[in-house]
Fold:
Amino acid sequence: MQVVMNPGVRKDSPAGPAWSARVPHGGRTAKQTLVACLAIVVLLALQGCQSLPMPADGEDAADGGEVVLPFPEPQPPTRELDEDLVYSYLVGEIAAHRGDLRLSQSHYQHAAILARDAYAAERATRIALHLKDYQAGLAAVRRWVELAPNDLTARQLATVLFLRDKQLDAAGEQLDALVLIANARGVDGYLQAAGALSVENDRAGAETLMQGLNARNPDDVRSLYGLGVLEAAHRRFEDAESHLREVLQRKPEWEQPRVLLARVLVAQSRRDEALTMLADSVGRYPDSSVLRTAYSRMLVDAGDYAKALEQFRHLYRQSPDDDEIAFGYAMLATQQEQWDEARPVWQVLRGRPERRDEASYYLAQIEERTGHEDLAIGLFGTVTGSELKVDAVMRAAQILGRTGRLGQARDLLQQARIANPGRAADLYVAETQLVQKHGDSEVALHLYDDGLRAFPDNHDLRYNRALFVLELGDFPGMEKDLRLILAQDPDNADALNALGYTLADRNERLDEAFTLVARALKLKPDSPAVLDSMGWVLYRQGDLVQAASHLRRALELTRDDEIAAHLGEVLWVKGQRDDAQAVWREALVHKPDSDKIRAVIERLQAGQQ
Structure:
């Protein structure tokens, strides 16, 4: 059983760089944005293509000169305010604030008619949509389009409302107008159309409209791309892939369709093909930061950090002043332990006020890893204004404890506990870990008591105390704490796993141990720690074949010397001694000082089980 008792870290987190989730993308994290949801992919595609619009074949988008809009604007209204008009505006606004949306909608609609005011018509339209009163919405949006014929949003909502009323021809007319207005304004109207239609429940109707728009504009490749975007949003990946490939045949240099195609391939479980396609794209267009960024982030998502770092090196050379790229580059260099490469980038980022805390935190980690421990403590101390502040205190305290300054470390944590009451429980966890590792056991037990008096329902504190008292030989105390956790949280997989494994390791109550670990495995089917525990329970029950199967799977998920020790023992007892020794040899390559492996080898070679 593997457990991690570091503060603020779940007790069964997979091996790997925790920082990888922090490679930035527009304020979001790479791990969250790459594959999680095609709706987000579509939004990214929309944003990217609006900022870099692709002109229609044979046309130039508006270039900053005077914009000539396609529809004549009506003359401004000449009616002056009167009691009826003022009353309509006031009631509309007050009713909206009070939540009486139907009253608000009717009065805004009345004001739009009386004053010929586009704002009132817009408010009436939006409120009707919120109320799902589509007939009232149609009346309001017609007035809005009449009063503001070149408003893109009015045309989008008109399209939506006509679609919901099954008036596809009228909706198509609004899309045509939308494209004309967008072209005049220098944005991509086809993506505006896809964005409006992508959230509609009538997917068939939405796609029919987009197909019709494409059919009416066959020479404009943007219309085909807009159709592909809508199909991707609707998870019609085969159709989206087909249309995106056709787009790229016609406009091979267009970046965004390549990015979206890669994500469509990923959504079809074809990540390797997507990576190959993006690698080829980067090779063909090496100066494209859009393509190289998409490729590097997909490499991060695939766990290929070395190749991702190579791509970020190129990006950083191309755009050294881009803080987002610099941050991702520094993160990857840090993860790959390229300290001399990461350090100067973090130092540059420390000069940016908005990046100072993050850069100081990760630069401190580099100095810690390279043996400059006092410098690391100082850098951690400069992290003051972000969520990383308490984590920095805990990291500094770990260094102090490790270097024989336990009293100073405890003072630091106690001061932080007073200053940060919202993280007080985490700071208790950190202090207990330091004291039990570097101090006196009795002091650690008293500290656990203090922490649990302050936070009696904190499962991290109670769980860690359970493991600690087990180390001290107090199995009943361990079981009591774990049972208390399970009484409050019956699906606490860590407590289930710890208790089940410990019973199996003690070779007692094996049926109960199996039940506990089986429940944990159902909750965490891909957990190396729980798979290891199940393998150990099965071994104790005499099912060597299934035990070996679970342990092999656990070892595939993480290189852990305890799992390797368990698997080797099972194979040895099965009579597969060469295989057992091969498992141990490989594990010792990665952890040559493993006491667990050396102990099991000595015990088994001495003829004991």
Q: What stands out?
A: The chain has 33 helices and two strands. Confidence is low (pLDDT under 50) at residues 2-63.
